[in-house]
Design a protein that fits this description.
The complex is a heterodimer. By secondary structure, chain A is an alpha+beta fold. Chain A contains 8 helices and 21 strands. Chain A has a 6-stranded mixed beta sheet with strand order 7-8-9-3-10-11, sandwiched between helices. In chain A, strands 2-1-4-5-6 form a 5-stranded antiparallel beta sheet, covered by helices on one side. In chain A, strands 12-13-14-21-15 form a 5-stranded mixed beta barrel. Chain B contains 26 helices and 2 strands. Chain B has a two-stranded antiparallel ribbon. Chain B is globular. Classes of the chains: A alpha+beta, B mainly alpha. At the A-B interface, strand 5, strand 6, strand 7, helix 2 and helix 4 of A face helix 1, helix 2, helix 22 and helix 23 of B.
Chain lengths: 369, 583
């Protein structure tokens, strides 16, 4: 395996394999990330995202593959290379923040610089700078135990970036915060990462975090990559039912392609409890006539009306309608299938109503099952 | 790191780079410590096992292989009786200690007994003191002729003969039970205190009364703790040497430990027969500890919810004064009375049963403590110096070992960690006297025999698990990410240990160190097997005085030891706080 920087990417993970006993926690995973970009590994717990992060950090050894940042090979079992974590020059923000309770905030943040044997005056000025950046100047001499969750989060970030590392790693850093703070910190984190411009890898199971913060998203399941791409791409063009379901709520129907009508367009036939319908839609890559597919429609892209009008439609019955303020969350029964629909409050749907559902072909996706 | 150095590293994908991957600071330390622990724990037990099959001939010169030693265990005139006595004493003191421990823990943790916060530290004092000294005190309190209580009963109550007699198997049960009650207390009080009060409240709402709720809800919920405590008391009683030596053996009530002692030292010493007896005692205790670790300890926390609420306590109404009186009585019997007795007896030139104010002096303390004086008794004064040396160095070495071992078990999680965890439980299964026999037969031919080193080795091997448990308890409460983030910040393993791990573990390290210091300062059953002239310890000094001098001198040294221990307990409470102790 060659070690020079062939692909031009900054962070390169090639064919990473990590075993826990017989269990393949990470199975042949590859990442290429350009310098300064923000990558999110997204997936449910146990999908291997944290294991991947720990492997990059060097807190786990790997069983096969190659990890490299810039010119520096972090690990490559085939070549007997394993750079210990402390030599990798990485900043990391942990789920528990891991702020050392026996030190003040300033001492916590100064620690990586002391380890690097930097002169005291420079340490002081850099600590002050970075504390200002995260908005903790006032808390510098407080003990870590006196901080709130959000403040510990900021201190942890400050400690991770103060040494201007090669790479920043985030292990579900917002999962211990309450909802409101989480939304606020998302934006803040992204702002700071933009400002310092350090290449970052972020692990989360929260798809909205991933969508808001990332330049690139990798959706993982069972140690493998399901899809990689930009946030918009992942959300609007999920390659399969798993991604579509994970990245947001979607209605997923099994069917087959009845006809290809143009480049990337076609009609899918769905059979449900005796009724049969053909829906025009966008076809995912590599899907041809006769293929079995999953039709994916997001709740906000289903139109439900009480009067029948033209075009392909489905007839169903509202079995649940929950008013959420800006929309109504409805369940509509169609045979044995339950549609999830977000309708406008003005449509005034109620339980027991008979409704007609229609779909915009531009937002109806046929993906691989 | 530049591109060239990487290329160089890659090209050297040979033995040296492979070695360099393996030879990290962490793995080197790990391997060394595992080897030390492995050798220290396994070697004496192996030798003990092998020695038990060596049969000494009648002249006492030659040995042959065989099962003769084990046959003697059943056919000897005394040993089977000693075996039975051990079982009776252990059962009896377990029942007594469990009853006292559970009732006191319940009163302190779950009721509105007056002043309970002030009573608690005194309930725990016997745990830290020496049961051997307790036996000496109770001997002077309730010996038929000269026991203070019996003299008073004759003088003031007009009792004929004597009221009490502790110089028999019941006395052994009495003193052992009282001194080990705090052990059960410690096993139970934590879960009682953290128990979700709504469990009891919901029983009360169904119409169950106070007694019924306590018996059907509260106690069953802490049953794993009670059983654990009871098993530990049984095992500790079976291995206890001092109490039966003082109150049982001289009056015809031999136990396994007093028999092992007489086979290890004395005129008819037969180490091989002693080994076989140790194996028999060890088999019982290991089996019980195995049951406790395997089946009972894992269930201990299932009833406890993690929420940090302060539970509501039960209002006992008028009965709370009864609870208060009960608790005071325990402290009086277990702490106040014995210490009072030691002081009184130690001030007399010779103890006759009568308090003679005119004869009182500190002469006994001069003879036993002032090692610089000509008239001092060397066995006693040596003991003081040796015990402080052993306690200080032993606790320090044991805590360093414990720190690395705990780190390996809870952080490294490598192949060795399971094995190491097992090795840390093994010494707990063997009474001190059994392990000491193993150490004796292993090292008797080596230069460390008859030095303080062999005592140090025995102490550390037997008791470092207690230090390890104290550190582990704190380590489990501290997130691993605190260590990891230091590595990510660029610090090596050693730097991380020095700057992050050890400072965070300080409370656990201090608590463990002090606990070991206390245990070593009062240690008897290992010392009695391994000491020789010049390497007496404090408790061996007490033994010497009790055996060859008089009760007054014995009481003086006992009192000195008790004072030293009380100072340590005070320090322990100040540093370790309420529930930092892990047993």
């Amino acid at each position: 395996m060659n070690t020079e920087n062939a692909s031009g990417a900054y962070l390169q993970v090639r064919n990473l394999v990590k075993l826990f006993g017989d269990d393949r926690a990470v199975d042949d995973l590859s990442i290429n990330l350009a310098e300064g970009k923000f990558l999110t590994l997204l997936g449910p717990s146990g999908c291997g995202k944290t294991t991947t992060l720990m492997s990059i950090a060097g807190l786990h050894t790997i069983d096969a593959g190659h990890i490299q940042v810039g010119d520096v090979v972090f690990t490559s079992p085939a070549n007997n290379i394993f750079l210990p974590p402390e030599k990798r020059d990485i900043g990391m923000v942990f789920q528990s923040y891991a702020i050392w309770p026996h030190m003040t905030v300033a001492e916590n943040v100064a620690y990586p610089l002391e380890i690097r044997k930097i002169e005291r005056p420079e340490i002081d000025s850099r600590v002050a700078d970075v504390l200002a950046l995260v908005g903790l100047t006032e808390m510098a001499n407080k003990l870590a135990t006196q901080l709130s969750g959000g403040q510990q989060q900021r201190a942890s970030l400050a400690r991770a970036i103060v040494s201007r590392p090669r790479l920043l790693l985030f292990d579900e850093p917002l999962s211990n915060l309450d909802l409101k703070l989480r939304e606020q910190m998302r934006v803040e984190l992204k702002r700071i990462q933009n400002e310092v411009g350090i290449t970052s890898v972020y692990v989360t199971h929260d798809q909205s975090e991933a969508l808001v913060m990332s330049d690139e998203i990798i959706v993982m399941s069972k140690g493998r990559i399901e899809q990689k791409g930009g946030p918009l791409e992942i959300y609007s063009q999920p390659v399969n039912g798993y991604v579509s379901n994970f990245i947001g709520v979607a209605n997923l129907l099994k069917g087959h392609v009845a006809q290809v009508t143009g480049a990337g367009r076609g009609e899918v036939e769905v059979v449900e409890n005796g009724s049969r319908i053909r829906l025009p839609c966008i076809l995912g890559a590599g899907i041809g006539e006769g293929d079995g597919v999953v039709l994916s429609v997001r709740p906000e892209n289903v139109r439900a009306v009480r009067e029948k009008n033209g075009g392909a439609h489905i007839e169903g019955e509202v079995i649940q309608a929950i008013f959420l303020g800006n929309c109504v969350d409805c369940r509509v029964r169609w045979g044995n299938f339950e549609w999830k629909i977000l309708s406008h409050p003005r449509a005034g749907l109620r339980e027991g109503d008979k409704v007609y559902l229609s779909f915009d072909p531009e937002h109806t996706l046929a993906v691989q099952p | 790191m530049s591109t060239e150095t990487i290329a160089a590293t890659v090209n050297r994908s040979s033995l040296s780079s492979r070695l360099r991957r393996v030879m990290t600071q962490e793995s080197i330390t790990t391997v060394i410590v595992s080897l030390i622990v492995g050798v220290a724990v396994v070697l004496p037990l192996m030798t003990l096992f092998v020695s038990s099959f060596l049969v000494l001939d009648d002249q006492g010169f030659d040995t042959t292989w065989g099962l003769e030693n084990y046959r003697i265990l059943f056919t000897d005139r005394i040993i089977p009786k000693a075996f039975l006595n051990t079982l009776i004493i252990s059962s009896g003191s377990t029942v007594l200690a469990t009853f006292l421990g559970v009732s006191l823990a319940w009163i302190n943790a779950r009721t509105n007994c007056p002043l309970r916060d002030y009573l608690e530290p005194y309930n725990l004092i016997p745990f830290f003191l020496s049961p051997f000294v307790g036996a000496i005190a109770w001997h002077n309190l309730a010996e038929p002729q000269t026991g203070i209580l019996n003299v008073w009963a004759r003088n003031y109550l007009g009792v004929e003969g004597h009221l009490l007699n502790v110089d028999n198997i019941y006395g052994v049960i009495w003193v052992t039970g009282i001194f080990f009650a705090p052990l059960v207390y410690l096993f139970v009080v934590g879960s009682l205190r953290r128990m979700d009060p709504s469990l009891e409240d919901s029983a009360r709402t169904t119409g169950a009364g106070l007694l019924r709720t306590t018996l059907t809800i509260t106690l069953p919920l802490v049953m794993p703790g009670i059983l654990s405590g009871a098993i530990i008391v049984f095992v500790t009683s079976a291995g206890e040497f001092g109490v039966p030596f003082k109150l049982g053996a001289p009056y015809g009530w031999e136990t396994l430990t007093t028999q092992i002692f007489s086979k290890a030292v004395g005129d008819d010493a037969n180490h091989y027969l002693g080994s076989a007896m140790s194996m028999a005692l060890g088999a019982i205790t290991v089996f019980l500890i195995w049951i406790q670790q395997r089946y009972i300890a894992p269930r201990s926390f299932t009833t406890v919810t993690g929420k940090g609420f302060r539970p509501n306590v039960l209002d006992l109404g008028r009965w709370k004064w009864l609870a208060f009186g009960y608790n005071l009585t325990f402290i009086f019997i277990a702490v106040v009375l014995p210490i009072f007795c030691l002081i009184v007896v130690s001030l007399h030139p010779v103890w006759t049963g009568e308090i003679l104010l005119d004869d009182m002096s500190f002469d006994n303390y001069r003879k036993t403590l002032f090692f610089w004086e000509e008239s001092s008794i060397k066995s006693a004064t040596n003991g003081i110096i040796n015990s402080f040396i052993l306690a200080f160095s032993g606790a320090t070495i044991a805590m360093i070992l414990s720190l690395v071992v705990s780190h390996m078990i809870h952080r490294t999680k490598g192949m060795g960690s399971k094995l190491l965890n097992f090795l840390c439980v093994v010494p707990i299964g063997f009474p001190g006297i059994v392990l000491a026999m193993g150490v004796l037969v292993t090292y008797i031919q080596t230069p460390i025999y008859a030095t303080l080193w062999i005592l140090l080795l025995g102490y550390i091997t037997r008791f470092f698990p207690y230090g390890q448990r104290n550190i582990s308890a704190v380590m489990l409460a501290i997130s691993e990410e605190l260590d990891q983030s230091s590595r990510m910040a660029g610090a090596t393993w050693f730097t991380t240990m020095r700057r992050i791990t050890i400072p965070l573990l300080k409370p656990g390290i201090f608590a463990g160190w002090l606990l070991l210091f206390i245990i070593f300062l009062r240690e008897l059953s290992i010392s009695i097997i391994l000491y020789s002239t010049g390497t007496e310890t404090l408790s061996v000094g007490v033994y010497y005085l009790s055996n060859y001098e008089n009760e007054a001198l014995t009481s003086a040294l006992s009192m000195a030891q008790t004072v030293a221990l009380l100072v340590c307990i005070f320090a322990f409470r100040r540093i370790a706080g309420r529930e930092a102790l892990t047993v």
